[in-house]
Amino acid sequence: MWWPRGTAFSPSERCFANARRPLFNSYRTKDLTFRTFRNEALEQYQTLFDLTSRYIYLAAKSYAYETGPLATMEGDAVFANIVVPPALGDMTEGKISRD
Fold first, then answer.
1. Which of 29, 33, 35, 90 is the 20 to 30 A CA-CA neighbour of 8?
2. Which residues contact 56 (CB under 8 A, 6 or more apart)?
3. Rounded CA gap, 97 and 99, in Å?
4. Which residues lie below 8 Å from residue 52, measured CB to CB, with a gap of 6+?
5. pTM of the full predicted structure?
6. 27 part of a folded domain
7. Which alpha helices (DSSP H) does the chain contain, by range?
8. Domain extent at residue 51
């Protein structure tokens, strides 16, 4: 076993460290697994968010093509609310506050 220079451990401390090493290694493995799956879940969320926003935009465009009223100032406001970057925020009374 390698110990840093100038470090003097008693035999009981070495025994304690050797006994705890498998426990600490299992913690590292669990942490790595957690981080990997969390990152994968966030990537899946981002992909689904992008796909959903694309479908919503296309549905609004086809509705605007069929009905025509979305080509006005109010229609521009509707599209401005549809095409927004994804951001985490607090939703209060149906409006998202991005602070």
1. 29
2. 82
3. 6
4. none
5. 0.49
6. yes
7. 11-67, 73-82
8. 11-83
